[in-house]
Amino acid sequence: MKIEKVFINVVKKILFIAFIIFILNIAKASQVFAANEEPLTVINNLSDFIFGLIRAVGLIILGFGVVQIGMSLKSQDPSQRANGFLTLAGGVVITFAKEILGIITGS
Questions:
Q1: Cα separation of 22 and 11, whole Å?
Q2: Mind listing the pLDDT tens digit for each residue in 12-44?
Q3: SS (H, E, C) 25-80
Q4: What is residue 82's three-state secondary structure?
Q5: Which residues 6+ apart lie within 8 Å of 80 measured at CB?
Q6: Where are the domains of the chain?
Q7: Beta-carbon count within 10 A of 88 CB
Q8: Whole-number Å distance between alpha carbons of 84 and 67
Q9: CA-CA distance, 98 to 89, in Å (whole number)?
């Protein structure tokens, strides 16, 4: 009786391992087709996406700089005003980073 339970458990484990190996072989054999686009098009799309993310971060920093300048004008704090203008300038540079790099590289 006890040997039969052990035998059944061993058979279940072997069948489970065989099933997993079967599934992994099917997943490995799936076909992957390349896009019909040029490789440079894919790289340019990725570049545009990354610069879009950088532009979004720059706009957030730009908005934070405007808020900081407004709060400094309300509280008459010159150091906060200076930090606000620096944040504003940094946000502008980050927002227009792609255009600035294009001007520098001449493209």
A1: 16
A2: 999 999 998 888 888 776 666 666 768 788 888
A3: HHHHCCCCCCCCCCHHHHHHHHHHHHHHHHHHHHHHHHHHHHHHHHHHHHHCCHHH
A4: helix
A5: 68, 71, 72
A6: 1-32, 35-107
A7: 19
A8: 8
A9: 16
What integer pLDDT is reported at residue 62 of this predicted model? 94
pLDDT at position 32 is: 66
Q: What three-state secondary structure class fits 106?
A: coil
Give the global pTM: 0.59
Q: Which residues contact 94 (CB under 8 A, 6 or more apart)?
A: 54, 55, 57, 58, 61, 62
Residue recorded with tokens 């946000």: 91
Distance (Å, rounded) from C-alpha 19 to C-alpha 13?
10
Amino acid identity of residue 91, one-letter, is: G
Structure tokens at 98: 């792609």
